[in-house]
Design brief:
heterotrimer, A mainly alpha, B mainly alpha, C mainly alpha, B: mainly alpha, 3 helices, flat, C: mainly alpha, 2 domains, three-stranded antiparallel β-sheet, 3 strands, 57% helix
Chain lengths: 128, 87, 172
């Protein structure tokens, strides 16, 4: 019974990871690719790590210490993924916007107005 | 010996890595390449967790934790470099 | 002093979690306990002032429980919705992107970090930049709602639902 649950979780995780790959290939610009590459891999990793945690708890229940160690360390890896992934995505998006990549087909871009104002201000300061 | 189901999972993850690698090679701008690299890092972490379960060795998962933290620092550093300005 | 003690305790607990099953005292061996304690004393001494900044409101256990309830309930549901949304857009290719500005009106650094990370992991939005003076966030939105664009900045409820209320309860 528990094995079927583990297989289902693994299947969901693989589905979302493959979706991240397809999204990376299909989307038109950096920002939309970040949407696919960040959300889908994080969600898929939650399910894959969850299946390994359940496997470890099952081994622990059957009386092996290795199982508990496996489960606890996998929780550590999951926490590391959850903390670092969105922050990295934010850093990449910010770097892309500052290095001048425009969002393709954007309806509105309030950040660009602000950044051009700031750039003009900086230039005048330098001249003075 | 590895079980069959883990082999299938790892092959699927390899397929994802190949798709992200195509983006790294083809990507028109530098941020595109970093997005591909970041995706590869996360998939490799899940692959290491699966390896740990398949061989029943906890050391793989320790390596996965350290890899997650180090790849995060790498991503931040490359992003900061692209952004320009002071460190 | 409180910062030093808090950082040392958190470091020691992390060390204990990562070395479970190494010996016979409880689950740990004597060497691991001793070495971990000395190491966390050093780390607490060096980084205590950076880790806790004269602000001890996060030591309240009620806030931890609220955080756990938030992570399991609305946040996880938001993530599931986000992924189904991205799946739909990957398959059909319908996008209508734009970068908008929101003013969530949060004061603390921890609160704004949590809100930015939550926004990145939930439906159709990705935090791009932050205005550090006013704590405004710039969001890349994959499917812009035309009604939301009328004012100076976009209302929070279009972007993050009721996340800002939860985070105000946790971190403010």
């Amino acid at each position: 019974m528990l094995e079927i649950l583990i297989y289902i979780l693994l299947g969901i995780g693989i589905f979302f990871n493959v979706l991240a790959g397809v999204g990376l290939l299909r989307f038109p610009d950096v920002y939309t690719r970040l949407h696919a590459g960040t959300k889908c891999t994080t969600f898929g990793s939650i399910f894959i790590c969850g299946s390994v945690i359940i496997l470890g708890l099952k081994m622990w229940y059957q009386g092996s210490t290795d199982g508990s160690v496996l489960a606890i360390h996998t929780v550590g890896a999951l926490v590391a993924i959850l903390l670092t992934n969105p922050t990295g995505a934010h850093a990449i998006a910010r770097a892309a916007h500052k290095s001048g990549v425009e969002p393709v087909g954007a309806v509105v871009d309030s950040l660009r107005k602000k950044s051009t104002k700031k750039a003009v201000k900086k230039k005048t300061e330098v001249k003075e | 010996m590895m079980d069959f189901e883990y082999l299938v999972v790892l092959l699927a993850l390899l397929f994802c890595v190949i798709m992200a690698m195509i983006r790294v090679i083809r990507g028109p701008t530098a941020p595109d390449r970093i997005v591909g690299l970041d995706t590869i890092n996360t998939i490799v972490i899940s692959g290491m967790v699966i390896f740990g379960a398949a061989f029943n060795e906890v050391i793989y998962i320790d390596v996965a934790i350290v890899y997650a933290l180090l790849s995060f620092i790498t991503t931040l550093f490359i992003a900061k470099y692209l952004e320009g300005g002071d460190f | 002093m409180i910062a030093f003690i808090v950082t040392t305790i958190i470091c020691f607990i992390t060390y204990l979690l990562l070395t479970t099953g190494s010996g016979t005292i409880g689950l740990w061996s004597r060497e691991e306990l001793l070495f971990g304690f000395i190491l966390s004393l050093i780390v607490g001494f060096v980084t205590g002032r950076i880790f806790v900044k004269e602000d001890f409101r996060m030591l309240n256990p009620v806030r931890w429980l609220t955080f756990i309830a938030y992570a399991i309930g609305p946040f996880f549901m938001g993530m599931a919705k986000a992924n189904i949304d991205v799946a739909y857009r990957v398959i059909t290719g319908k996008i209508n992107p734009g970068i908008v500005k929101i003013s969530p009106d949060l004061k603390t650094d921890l609160g704004i970090t949590m809100l930015a990370n939550s926004i990145t992991l939930t439906p159709g939005t990705l935090s791009v930049d932050i205005d550090e003076d006013k704590n405004d966030l710039y969001i890349h939105w994959i499917n812009v709602n035309e009604e939301a664009l009328k004012g100076e900045s976009v209302d929070c409820k279009y972007i993050c639902g009721n996340f800002d209320k939860w985070i105000r309860r946790i971190a403010e």
